[in-house]
Please model this.
Amino acid sequence: MSPNVDPRAPVLRLAGITKRFGALVANDAISLELSAGEILALLGENGAGKSTLVSILFGHYVADEGSIEAFGAPLVPGDPAAALAAGIGMVHQHSTLADNLSVLDNVMLGTEPLWRPLSSRRAGRARLVDTAKRFGLGVDPDARVATLSVGERQRVEILKALYREARVLILDEPTAVLTPQESEALFSTLRGLTAQGLAVIFISHKLDEVLRVSDRIAVLRAGRLVDSRLAAGATKAGLAEAMVGRAVPPPVPRPHTVGDVVLHVDRVHVGAERAGARLDAVSFSLRAGEIFAIAGVSGNGQAALVELLCGLRAADAGRVTLAGRIMPADPREWLRAGVARIPEDRREVGAIGDLPLWENAIAERYRRPYASLGVVRRAAARTFARKLVERYDVRGGGIDTPARLLSGGNLQKLILGRALSGGAPRPGEFVPLAVVASQPTWGLDIGAVGYVHQQLLDASARGAAVLLVSEDLDEILALADRIAVIHAGRLTAARPTKAWTLATLGLAMAGEALPDAA
Amino acid sequence: MRLEARDRLSRPMLVAAPFAALAFTFAVAALFVAWAGAPVGRTVALIFDGGFGSRFAWSETLTRATPLVLTGLAAAISFRAHLYNIGAEGQLYAGALAAVAVGGLHGGTGFELPAVVLFPAMLGCAMAAGAALMALPALAKTRFGVDEVVTTLLLNFIVLLFVSMMLDGPMKDPAAMGWPQSVTLAGDLELDKLVPRTRVHTGLLYALALAVIAWVALRATTFGFEVRAVGANARAARFAGVPVERTLVLVALASGAVAGLAGAIEVAGRTGYVTLDMSPGYGYTGIVIAMLAGLNPLGVVAAAVFVAGVLVGADSMSRAVAVPTYIADVIVAVALLAMLVANQATRYRLRWR
Model:
């Protein structure tokens, strides 16, 4: 508690942390130190071992080797309560708050013994207000969490940790669900915390924000600490190379001509049977050869829109026309019309994990052309799958491997190949009429991201109308010709990419009205 | 302690798993036998001898296996689609009743139609009766999300009471001295004996043929793909364009039809009439068999023969030593649990930390 500790002494010292899962070495002899008043960014691709490391730190896992010291005392391994007591607080990527309780209830939850009959709410409230004031985190203690925005919830999560007297705060991908403005507000909160002597570990895979917010950057790759440097003087390209282990070429832009309207969405309404699935008078047109992107913070209606455009749900009002035809809610009709669909959830929606790769490869075309008279044409299907695997560079097993064993990147390549090849016996001779891609690079490593981007660019160059629904603004700004923003089920007018800035995108994502611009 | 998925399945382990499960099963059975104070080795030997030790033992085992193959198939194909038909027992009785209604009423003449017409009609009506019982649960599930485990299970009791009503009422055999027993099937509708002077009948061939058909259909047809896709991941199947609801309804009807056929085959091959105790839980044992077989239709045949052999063997053993036949239920139940654990062990490993 008292700030009269030696400020240069490390608050946290990890020595030789190793963690194995079977044959996989998730953390390989990682040693790190964290000083008071410092923001350390933990940078690395999916599967690099970031989450494992903080899970060990917070006591969810026990390291196979190595030790942790917090404030000079050894930390009991495998005990979250000990980590909390030692002053380590964790803010998870997805909110772990109870929606139906107030902010005060959420913050106090778990801080009082269960067997005490009365909860001392008055003392709790005083302490919460005091903590909030001390760290400049304004929040109404009586507000129900369900009514708070994502940014506010995150503030409550941070407050919850501070209420328990955390001196080290771990944030797991905290900006993934925030608008640029909310991210900026979070960064200034973090700087306020470190000014008061707290230490912060900030996990991310976004290079820009890591450079902006952190004092020191530790890069993990395949379980090892490959680089640790001061943020001052580090460059994006250098960090990317450290993260991937090789230089990363940017996607090649392509000449393309924009043609006729292919897909027209006209004042579509979808009612909300669950939160965040509402669409309110959404209209837009998609033209052949262009990439049109829909930006927005997740949970603002993207899921409903994508389901609508994959043939999985019907609009309650309004209509969707594809090449002049009103489309029904039937995935097969959309496939027959030549729409390549890439769903957001590749493991649960994009692939049938327990079926082998070859059956997944033909899953969208199992009646035609890969069956006749109700019997699957096994030889033709397997030949097709082999070609698909080769052309789209799917690695990690033969065509008899269950799809669930593929890595995220390879699974996405399989889904991408299946969609873009349209089941044509020779992959590559089919050009989709339209491509509907939802979060196509979510959670992929940089190499696979580049591959997916190139495929989308190539598809539009060949004349496909590409709709990209994404939360990743860097991706959208790099690929899209036109952008619209979705907020609370409403879509802004589409504008050319050049007419947007990060600031205007952020405002639109937060639902603010935009000043009119040409 | 937690489970961790193995990256690759090892082939030796896949082969060894069922044997390890069986060894464990008999170790547990031996414990119970010893507890009952009987000589362990002799008792187990007697069970095997009674089930598989002679021509007669084999004939009894195969007779008992015939309905079990069919109810096992009924469970296996519906479970493959993640549709849990627990109602095979009721569907079996419905099929048996339908078979007698077609081939036994009208004074035992079966409407005076020639057997070539009447026999397929009998089987068809039995299958239709079983399928009809699945129609309601299937539609309730696909339309309203009603859990089919509950509906199919509860339908069993309704069907049994209905059968009881029919056996004491319209279909009662007047020559049965007051026993609740249906009229008998016309003689020319009965199945031929496969081996003379035993009870094995040609129903076994129907069951085997159906197992092969189910295996081929699941593996090679588009419907089989739909069933497996819906069972493995219904959301992904729907996304890919598989008509999920239609597949579920069709597989439910097929499952009910196979269980109904089991009833008709029992009546035509073994009993000749319907009583309320014609099935000692074949429908439920079929579920165990399907799970033992890993939901593989060909595996169902092997599992049904094993279970039938244990049941028959336990019957004959209990006449020689003082161990109740319930040991058979213990063996079958432990075998199921051991097999489930063994299957998981091939896919996951246990980590203590």
In short: Chain B has a mean pLDDT of 91.
